[in-house]
Amino acid sequence: MNKKKIQLAIPAVIGTLWLSGCGESDSVVKSREDQAEPVTLKFYQHVLLPDDYYKKVFEEPIKKKFPNVTLELVKKTNLNWRYDLDPDIHEKLADGSFPDLIYTSSWHTHFFKNVDVPLDLRTLVKENRYNLDTFVPQSIEAIKKNGDNGELYGIPFTMNHAALFYNKDLFDKFAVAYPRDGITWDEVIELSRKLTRKEGDVQYYGTKFYGTLLAESFPLPYFNPSTGKADFRTDGWKKMMQFVKTLHEIPATRDYKGIIKDNFAKNQILAMAPENIDFINALEALRKEGAGLNWDVVSYPNHHEVPGVARTVDVHNLMISKASKHQELAFQIISFLTNEENQLLANRNGRLSSLKGDIFQETFGSEIEVLKGKNIKGIFKNTPAPLPPISPYNYIATSELSTASNKVAGGTADINTALREAEEATDKRIEAAKSGNKTNKAY
C-alpha cells in the first residue's frame, strides 16, 4: 500500500474505529494527539439525497469522528433518468476533478466501471479485517455482479425497498376498500378501474406504471446469452406489456400526464403509487410544507408466479475512486459509516440499512414524522428480486423498453411491434457504442 496514503489517512482516525461487525482493528486505532493535516475529500452524489439527510447522516458524523476531514459535496447535475445522456462522469474525468467517494446504486455501478473509475476494495477489506458477513447477502451479491472476476467495487450503505403508497381519501371518496399487504398486480389494475373517475373538471387516476417496472420481480433478462442481442419478444416481456396495455385500456388512463410524485402527493389525483421507499422523503418534505395528505402504504404488488417477491434489489453503495489520493482514509470513512451505530442513524431517518438484523426493520423511519401511524411493516412483507445479469448496455435496453411501454400505453403500436422495434433500436445503439460513438454509450 502507498506509504504516503497510510501516513495521511491512518492518523486521521480519532479514538477507536469499530469496523462493521469486526470489532476494533489495530490498523486504524490512533489517539486524538495523532491527527493528520486537514484533508478535503470530494463526495459525489450520483444518487441524490435530501440535503438535511446528507447533513445528518454523512456530514455531521464524519466531522465529529474525523475532525481533520472536510467533505466537499459534488452533486450530479443532469437529473435525466436516462443516464446514457449524463455527462458528469466524463467531464470530471477529463478535467481531473473526479471525487474520492462516490454514492451510487448497484444499478449504476457499471457506468463507472465502463470508464475505469471504481477501486476494487478487496485488498482494503482484507487489510482492515472488514467483515462483509454482517451485510444482507443480497446487498453484497448485487455489487459483486458488476465485477468480472469477483471484484468488489463498493460497500453497501442502504437498500431501497419498494412499496405501494395509496391515498386513503381517494379510496374513501369513491367507496373503494383499501389495498392490503400481499396485493397482486392484477388486483392493482382492478382497483384502478374503480378509482379512475372524473368529477367536475378533475380527472382522477387509479395508478400508473411501466412494463420495465413490472418485469423486475422475475427478473426478466434483456439479452440472449448466446447471441448477446436484445431479446424482448419473449413470453415474459409480452406478458408485462399486456399488463401495461390492460391498464391503459381503462378510460382516461391513456391520457395520463404529469409526474407520479406530484400527482400523488401534491395534486392528489393519483390513488396509488408503486414507488421505492425513498418516496418517503418527498412525502416528509410536503408535510413540512403543510400539505395535507391522508395516505398509507402496503407491500409492493407481486405476481402470482412469484409470490412475495418485489422489485429488483437496489443497493445504494459507497465506492472509492482509483484516482483518489486518500484511498485508505476513504475506506476508514466507509467503515465508520457502515458500523451499527451509523447504520441505525441512517435507518431511523428513512433509508433501510444493508446490515443484517431485525432491529433495522423495527426502527426504520422512527425519526420521520410523516411515517407515524403508517403500516411500515408492510414495506418489508416482500423480498427484493435479485439483479438480472449485468451488462454495460442494460440502460440502453431499459430505455428502449420504456419507449416500447409508452407506445403500448399510448396505443401507437401493438405489443409485438413495440418489442420488435425496441430490440432493433437497442442492438443499433449498442453497435454504435461499441464503435466509439459516445452519444450512444450506456454511461
Describe this structure in words.
- The protein is an alpha+beta fold and 443 residues long.
- It folds into 2 domains: 3-160 and 313-369, 3-Layer(aba) Sandwich (D-Maltodextrin-Binding Protein, domain 2); 162-310 and 389-440, 3-Layer(aba) Sandwich (D-Maltodextrin-Binding Protein, domain 2).
- Helix content is 38%, strand content 14%.
- The chain contains 18 helices and 15 strands.
- A 6-stranded mixed beta sheet has the order 4-3-5-13-6-14, with helices on both faces. Strands 10-7-11 form a 3-stranded antiparallel beta sheet. A two-stranded antiparallel sheet has the order 1-2.
- The chain is globular and about 65 Å long.
- Mean pLDDT is 87; it is low at 1-35 and 438-443.
Short descriptors:
disordered C terminus, 3-stranded antiparallel β-sheet, 18 helices, alpha+beta, 38% helix, 6-stranded mixed β-sheet, single chain, D-Maltodextrin-Binding Protein, domain 2, 443 residues, 2 domains
